[in-house]
Amino acid sequence: MQKLIIKGNKELSGVISISGSKNATLPILAASILAKKVNLTNVPLVKDIFTMVELLKFIGIKVKIKNKKKIIEIQNKNQNINTLAPYKLVKTMRAGVLVLGSLLTKYKKAKVSLPGGCAIGTRPVDLHLLALKKMGAKIKIKDGYIVAEAKNGLVGSKIKFPSISVGATENALLAAFGAIGKTTLLNCAVEPEILDLIAFLKKLGSKIRISGRKIVLESKILKKETVNHKIIFDRIEAGTYLIAGALIGKKIILKNINTKILKIEIDILRQMGVKISILKNSIIILKSNKLKKININTKPHPGFPTDLQAQLMVLMTQATGLSKIQENIFENRFMHVSELKRMGAKIEIKNKSAYISGPTKLTGAEVMATDLRASVSLVLAGLIAENRTIVNRIYHLDRGYEFLEQKLKKCNARIKRT
Predict the structure, then answer these.
(1) For residue range 194-205, what is the model confidence (pLDDT) as tens digits?
(2) Which residues are part of the catalytic machinery?
(3) Which residues contact 369 (CB under 8 A, 6 or more apart)?
(4) Backbone φ and ψ of 155, nearest 5°
(5) Which of 203, 197, 174, 185 is nearest to 107 (CA)?
(6) What fold is seen in the domain 22-230?
(7) pLDDT of 185
(8) Measured between alpha carbons, how far is residue 133 from residues 56, 128, 147, 152, 209 in Å?
(9) Which pTM does this prediction carry?
(10) Can you name the residues that pair with 145 across neighbouring β-strands?
(11) Strand 182-186 and strand 214-218: pairing?
(12) Which pLDDT tens digit goes with each residue over 232-253?
């Protein structure tokens, strides 16, 4: 099994180009089932993307990846479509369940394995199914699969989600694309990745209006034979390197980003005393000598993202005083805490909150990654720790971070994969 070896306490300096968003690419790949031909650019070449591509190929869609240019070409002209998404392709990637909405609205049936992904909480598909049932789908769970059918097609409906869910919002949008009439979604997630999916669906021919957490969708006839779309930048990757720069950077420049999307992350880091300069499509992080404590809550966008909670916790270990993180999205998202404590971090968990005392000197240790974002938090800890840190189970990292070691090495980090 592969692992990362990090020799820490080495100041970083250099330029990092931020990749396309994994969390935007996955639902857009699922949406490509609805199109005839699609060209996607700025696609991150990470494990989850390759898994979704294999799923599309299994369904019967032609997909070609041009690695050097980060382009995916998709053609859906096959009449023999397989409306099955098997367990072997969905078990490691929760986004696999998103083909459910696309298959159901276009082919009127689907059989999709219940999803897997990181072990950070239950994340049930109840809200996905609630939306599809409201549109007229007949659904049952059998042998670990969601079996759905809409013999006469889906029908537009008014759907209010009892709680905000990114995945359920995405699946409802995909299902509504081919539904008869108008669909109104209330209490939706409005993350930048969802807005990118909406931009793609508009290119396919949908008429979509957004007002706060309300989305209204009406489908139109697809006029274009080929749809071209550039994936937005990965705000979680950008946030991760922002924190790396704050931890041990002399001067780190992040490129290929929309700084407006990172407003909450930049505001919080500035409150902690991090020196940040904002340019048009880039950010400069300068060495910060003294970090301040802070209290944050994870919330749906535009709040602070749960996907950056573990990384920010590492920064809090270097801040003066007692910081607090309240986790409001997932119930098991503090699994990295025990590993950080093995490196010397002073963290206490009470209910849904973590209390972090600092500044604390971290020492290298052998640690175990438990999920995608926890694994990168251990890398960040390794960068500032004395001696050597070994991070095991880095297949979690490969699911969502493109060329992590190479990007850090270009900034003088001492990191290698074995």
Answers:
(1) 999 999 999 999
(2) 118
(3) 339, 375, 378, 391, 392, 393, 394, 396, 397
(4) -120, 135
(5) 174
(6) UDP-n-acetylglucosamine1-carboxyvinyl-transferase; Chain (3.65.10)
(7) 98
(8) 24, 9, 12, 13, 23
(9) 0.94
(10) 113, 142
(11) antiparallel
(12) 999 999 999 999 999 999 999 9
Distance CA 224, CA 106 (A): 17
Domain layout of the chain by residue ranges: 3-18+233-417, 22-230
Tell me the sheet residues that pair with 297: 326
Does the 3-18+233-417 domain belong in CATH 3.65.10.10? yes
CATH topology identical between 3-18+233-417 and 22-230? yes
